[in-house]
Amino acid sequence: MKISSVIAKAVRDTTPLGRSNTPQVDVEIVHMNPMVSSGSGRGDKDTFDPPWGEAICVVTFDNGVWGVGLTAHAGFAVPIINEYLAPMLIGQDVESVADIGELWDLTTTVTAAHIGAAGSTSYAISAVDLAMYDALGKSLSLPVYDLLGGPAHAAIQCYATGTNVEKNAGFGFERFKIPCPWLARGAEGVEATVAAVEAARSAVGDAELMIDCWAVMDVDEAVDVCNALEPYDLVFVEDYINPEDWDGYGDVRSRTTARLAAGERWFTVRPFEQQASLGTIDVLQPDPLWVGGATPTVRIADVARRHCVDLAIHCAVNDAFGQHLCFALAENVIGEMYIGASTSLAESYRSTPGMAIPVNGVLVPSDAPGFGIEITLDGIEAAT
Ligand SMILES: [Mg+2]
User: Fold this and answer.
1) How many CB atoms lie under 10 A from the CB of residue 303?
2) Ligand 1 mean position to 145 CA, how many Å?
3) pTM value?
4) Is residue 370 part of a domain?
5) How far is the CA of 285 from the centre of ligand 1 (A)?
6) 83 C-alpha to center of ligand 1: Å?
């Protein structure tokens, strides 16, 4: 099949995607973190809301089959897809996963030389790569996990992310992660974080528990937090420092024995390969909608295998994309479902129509072709 069109648009109404338009963050943010999309803070100077919502990309083959991909930050992702990537991709042949991989190499190589393949560009490439996988699966009448060699797990063991662990236990989850993005500086921040973990630990008993620090700490704070949390037997401490503090990961590693997780804010395969080679990280957490799509996520699974670390795809069971990747990749150990303030799993952050929902914390993806996303072109039109 040849690619006949690549078109991206900003999502303006998420209801056709099966969820409401209300923010789903359930924590009060008191420390400026530009990566956090909503929340109330101490004042205007302490919070920043990125102005762009999601982007949706449709890739159509000359057999008439089309596939859909999603990403964040439509403000830049849409023009990068429509004006920069589409002219490079239209007319290219896609018969296999290997062909999609070659096109990922093409787009990342060209953009790296011009505008950078990481950051903004990576969001755009993600949506296109996912849409190509979806269209290929539909063309071959195969779910994406079968394009990738078939299921590697009988089912995906899931955990719930959110401050209200009791509520999430009520959804049937038995593994939990709490976000702690409100960090004050220094000792006060360490104290607040320990108090939050202590409360969660007493609520969930000896269940698996993790913490996500939303990348707000510096190296010294991260080390203090990791060491102070040692008695609470966490599975891992996630996103503890600025995601571009490349040397900082090694500094933290050398000063704590905590299991360390990072990667949702890294782009392309390179940072995963570099940090895994340095031995700084125990759990790699690429986000298929941000890191560049399914192609780099599969390659990062290979990084995990070669360096004997775990893979735990970011928000893996929040959408059909992550679900299929988790199911197919043997290296992925657990599936995250971000719940936050959502009151329904079916309408949680990023949900896509027709996707499977965890039952008692366990999930098997839809076996419909592609990613099994049940949206029509009219539905996409209504959303954009
Ligand atoms: Mg996270």
Assistant:
1) 23
2) 24
3) 0.95
4) no
5) 8
6) 31
Same domain, 133 and 247: no
Q: What is the pLDDT of residues 260-294, one digit of tens each?
A: 999 999 999 999 999 999 999 999 999 999 999 99
d(C-alpha 290, C-alpha 124), whole Å: 8
DSSP conformation letters of 316-378: TTTSHHHHHHHHH-TTB--EEEE-TT-S-GGGSTT--TT----BTTEE----SSBT-----HH
In the reported structure, the alpha carbon of residue 66 is separated from the centroid of ligand 1 by a whole-number distance in angstroms of: 31
Asked if 376 and 7 count as a contact pair (C-beta separation under 8 A), the reply is no
What is the residue range of 123's domain?
Answer: 3-141+375-383
Q: Are residues 161 and 102 in the same domain?
A: no
Which segments of the chain have a pLDDT < 70? 22-24, 27-50, 181-185
Q: How far is the CA of 215 from the centre of ligand 1 (A)?
A: 8
- Same domain flag for 301 and 205: yes
The CA 150 to ligand 1 mean position distance, Å, reads 27
Q: Could you tell me the CATH number of the domain that includes residue 50?
A: 3.30.390.10
Ligand 1 centroid to residue 339 C-alpha, Å = 12
- Total domains present in the chain: 2
Same domain, 313 and 209: yes
CATH number of the domain within which 162 lies: 3.20.20.120
Q: β-strand 335-338 against 156-161: which pairing, if any?
A: parallel
Distance, in Å, from the CA atom of 362 to the CA atom of 360, rounded to the nearest integer, reads: 6
- CA–centroid distance, 219 to ligand 1, in Å, is 18
Mark whether 151 and 137 lie in a shared domain.
no
Q: Ligand 1 centre from 177 Cα, in Å?
A: 9
